[in-house]
Amino acid sequence: MTAFVASRRRPFLQRLADASEPWLYTAPALILIVAVMLVPLVLGVSYAFRDIKLLNPFGGGFVGLKHFEALATDQAFRTALVNTLWWTGASVLIQFVFGLILALLLNQPFRGRAIAQALCFLPWAVPSFLTGLDWAWLFNPVIGPLPHWFVALGLMETPQSILSDPDLAMWGPIAANVWWGIPFFAITLLAALQAIPKDLYEAAAIDGAGPIERFRSITLPFLAPTIAITILLRTVWISNFADLIVVMTNGGPADRTQIVASYIFTTAFRRLDFGYASAIALVLLVLLLAYSMLIVLLRQSLLKRG
Amino acid sequence: MAAIDIKSARKAYGAVNVLHGVDLAIGDGEFVVLVGPSGCGKSTLLRMIAGLEEITSGEIAIGGRRVNDLQPKDRDIAMVFQSYALYPHMTVAENMSYSLKLRRTPKERIAAAITAAAGKLGLDQLTERRPKALSGGQRQRVAMGRAIVRSPKAFLFDEPLSNLDARLREQMRVEIKRLHKDLGATSIYVTHDQIEAMTLADRIVAMNGGVVQQVGSPLDLYDRPANLFVAGFIGSPAMNMIPATYRLANGTGVAEVAGGHRLPLAGSFPVPDGTAVVIGVRPEHVTVSPPGSGGLRTGVDLVEPTGFGSILHLAPFGQPIKAFSLDRSLGRDGAAVDVTFDPARLHVFAEADGRRMDPAG
Amino acid sequence: MRRNPVLTVLHRLAIGLYIAFALFPLYWLLKVSVTPNDLLYSEGVRLWPSRTSFEHYAFVIANSEFPRFFLNSFIVSGSTAVIVTIVAAVAGYALSRFAFRGKYWITALMLLTQMFPLVMLIAPMFKILSPLGLTNSLTGLIVVYTAFNVPFATFLMQSFFDGIPRDLEEAAMIDGATRFVAFRQIILPLTLPGIAATLGFVFTAAWSELLFALMLISGNAAATFPVGLLSFVSKFSVDFGQMMAAGILALIPAALFFLLIQRYLVQGLTAGAVKG
Predict the structure, then answer these.
(1) CATH code of the domain containing B317
(2) Do the beta carbons of residue B332 and residue B290 sit within 8 Å?
(3) Order of strands, edge to edge, in the sheet holding B336-341?
(4) Is the same domain home to B61 and B200?
(5) Number of domains, chain B
(6) How many angstroms separate the Cα of B77 from the Cα of each of A251, B1, B23, C178?
């Protein structure tokens, strides 16, 4: 019966149905993304060219490139840009190195591995602002142990908070971020490690390769694509990630921990200048896009070579 | 049961042609084997018949009905996959009954069909197991069972035995042949193993590079390969290919091989004297005799005993050839033997296009 | 292969050290939450207070609005996790199984969304949601969280599907299933670990989100617990003990969920697309 009906169906409709099937499956996701993310983004981009201040109800007019001209001479923005490089570079690098070490450690079979793995990954479940509060406490000389440990180790003369020291303040949020973000790297790298065929290592061992040589010639090449994509995603996320800084230092002392993302936050919600905030955000978005393109191109040329 | 008609079926991915216009008529109840090296398009053709690949152009009909635009589920065919594709979360019985459930077959009929199929395949004790708890051979049987419970119009097999070890493969080959004898179902079987093709097929379709090279009974392909590809692909050990020049002497053809030796052929061929040809001769048709029996004297370079006989590596005119001999006494390294060729057993191919040539008259 | 005992000891030691590093900050939260107020500063740097009490917990549970925040967070995170997982499963399936023209652009769009400075979206979003009555409502929060989590969840699900052989659904389609039935009856049951991982991942993310909750919600009725937690700060005095007690309580469901699913996260990513 079904066969009879189907044979009478017009091939054109059939073909249309076949072609639209993937779109049907992706439609809910696409509609959500476009409506809730893309439309506000376009609106947000338009704010960058308008005078939008909550305190000025008569604003809203187009001001052209005025915000961007202001941005070009904005010393605070330049500081924030440099700080962002520090913040992102240090966070990603340290997270990656420790994430890789942790993944390698967890990739060895041992008793209690399941529990150890769960505990190692636990910080990822902690809300970011709670992480920030917690670490701010740990760095506090009155209610946290870390300054006293630093003194005991001879790193510090008297117990004081590094968060209020202009030269060291950035390392506070970075430490919190590293603690919080290592699990993400460890999870993805562990997954990639477990996908490497075991017989490759056996073959290399038989060929006489030592552990370091095996790591260099098998593990690293296999991990490279994962490393590239994970570093790309994390870099983008972390440069946009203001929670820890807002909670721990609020950009201070003296703007020494102000990154672009927290500067946008401050401009928008403390100074209520949404136009200017959008202009900064747009610049950040363009920089991140350029960076991503670079990584993607790099990865493609790596894949082609390999 | 149904006949399957394929008319100039073509498959292209973008600008890349993987199948160049295949024409094939498969009779009701026939067992057809598509054979060829990997990448020859045999699996693509099978998947086009199943409805898993779109047909770029041309037409495929099952039981007289054009199926180009039908979903796989509406084509009423069953397929056995190379990986078996058993549903890991279902028991053997559930695997086999899934298609019947989708067709809303009454429960009693399903139970009866499962019992019958399980009995036929020796799976009676295993129906409540999951695929994970089965051996490779048992999984293969379940895959077969899943196909036969439905009594579909046709069975498609996509290299079903290539994941089994040699002994099991031989055993399953026999079972598939017996099943086909019992059920008489139209079957299309894809393999790269020419022995499977020879032993199972009513007709073999030899393919290479997306083009059908020859269609015929197994013995047809063995006795009269249509071109160099089929000649080299069918038969084990493979046919010897000897480059030669065609000469006409006293009204009959001879092949002049390296060193000026002349091998008489079965007649004259419709090509001019001096044409470059390739002479094909199967190892089992190279006659080897003790020295002094007459023929070309040559030394035995290497011996591969198979138990049943020996494969001798020889070089009667400078060119290495293999001969298969049942006489064990000849199979000694360094021994001298005499080699003769039966003109009727020599295949002649044009060197230019690899086509078979037959003697005139 | 026999392993060098020295290496084995070093390996266990390193694991132990990392666990200590991972757990110590959590331990500190716990310590503060059970320290009575009068000892908070005087014994601030001690590893364990001389006297413990659960007064902060009792207060948070009995006298604050925290139970309501908790419930709100549950509704928002639970709904978000379920909706995102469904949407991402279907979209991830399409990206994994179909070769179609728009695939490249969909992937690019989803990657692009990962780069937005989210702060930039808040004001426009408020402007769009407010006429729809979706500000100050849990529904609005669910919609926003769902959209934000769909891209990454889709990549995640795609990688899980990539790990399941295509043969299975082809077999099902030949057995008489439509593509959708094959998806639902054959593929989906096999992706359960992946679904669990995605659920947990999204739940944790939504559970922790502060920025949008803070901007889109005013007043306690629809506040989620991160917002509520901040209310311990902004009121007349900052009560850190209560705040940490609330924080610990709030950590429990997210941590439990995460502990249960992290195994599947690794398993699923092993199978699929992170490498490609």
Answers:
(1) 2.40.50.140
(2) no
(3) B286-289, B336-341, B296-299
(4) yes
(5) 2
(6) 68, 10, 20, 14
Q: What pTM did the predictor assign? A: 0.82
Question: Cβ contact (<8 Å) for B85 and C173?
Answer: no
The domain in which residue B314 lies consists of 240-357
Give the neighbours of chain C: at least 3 Cβ pairs within 8 Å.
Answer: A, B
Closest CA to A257 of A138, A82, A129, A93: A82
Q: Which residues of C touch A281 (CB under 8 A)?
A: 117, 119-120
Average pLDDT of span A119-133: 88
Token pair in block for residue A254: 């003296």
Query: Are both B122 and B185 inside the same structural domain?
Result: yes
Which of B212, B233, B254 lies at the terminal end of a domain, its last residue? B233
Q: B52 in contact with C at a CB cutoff of 8 Å?
A: yes
Q: Quickly count: other Cβ atoms within 10 Å of residue B10's Cβ.
A: 16
Name the minimum distance, in Å, from the CA of A92 to any CA of chain C: 16
In this complex, which of B83, B89, B98 lies closest to C175 when CB atoms are compared?
B98
Domain match, B156 and B197 both: yes
Per DSSP, the three-state class of B14 is coil
- Domains of chain C with CATH codes: 1-53 (no CATH), 59-275 (1.10.3720.10)
Query: Which of C167, C177, C189 is facing B89, going by the closest CB pair?
Result: C189
The distance of A5 to chain B (nearest Cα, Å) reads: 10
C38 at B interface, C-beta within 8 A = no
Class of domain A74-305: mainly alpha
Q: Which of B99, B105, B142, B146 to mutate to test the interface with C (most CBs of C within 10 A)?
A: B99
Interface test with C, best of A119, A156, A184, A303 (most C CBs within 10 A): A119
CATH number for the domain spanning B92: value is 3.40.50.300
The answer to whether residues B18 and B163 belong to one domain is yes
- Based on the domain organization, do B120 and B256 belong to the same domain? no
In a 3-state reduction of DSSP, which class is residue C164? Answer: coil
Residue where one domain finishes, among candidates B201, B218, B233? B233
In C, which residues are within 8 Å of B79 by CB distance?
Answer: 170-171, 174
Compute chain B's Rg from CA coordinates.
Answer: 25
CB contact (8 A) between residue A26 and residue C91? yes
Q: Quickly tell me which residue has 């005095």 as its tokens.
A: C237
Chain B hits for A7, CB-CB cut-off 8 Å, are 65-66, 70
- Inter-chain residue contact B51 with C173, CB threshold 8 Å: yes
Q: Are strands B240-249 and B252-256 parallel, antiparallel or unpaired?
A: antiparallel
Q: Which residue of B has its CA nearest to A7?
A: B70
Q: Give the integer Cα–Cα distance in Å for A80 and A263.
A: 7
Give the three-state DSSP class for A289.
helix
Return d(Cα A52, Cα A188) in angstroms, integer.
42
Same domain? For B216 and B315 the reply is: no
Beta-bridged to residue B78, according to DSSP, are B155
Same domain, B251 and B202: no
Expressed in percent and rounded to 5, the helix, strand and coil fractions of chain A are 75, 0, 25
Chain B, nearest residue to A16 by Cα:
B69
Alpha carbon distance C20, A99 (integer Å):
15
Which residue, among B87, C98, B252, has the nearest Cα to A21 in the 3D structure?
Answer: C98
CB contact under 8 A, C210 and A129: yes
**pLDDT tens, position by position, for chain C (276 residues)?**
456 888 889 999 999 999 999 999 999 989 888 888 887 777 777 788 888 888 888 888 887 788 888 899 999 999 999 999 999 999 999 998 888 888 889 988 888 888 888 878 888 888 888 888 888 889 999 999 999 999 989 988 888 888 888 899 899 999 999 988 999 999 988 888 888 888 888 998 898 888 888 888 887 788 888 888 877 765 556 677 888 888 888 888 888 887 777 777 777 666 543 333
Same domain, B177 and B196: yes
Q: Over range B38-67, report the average pLDDT.
A: 92
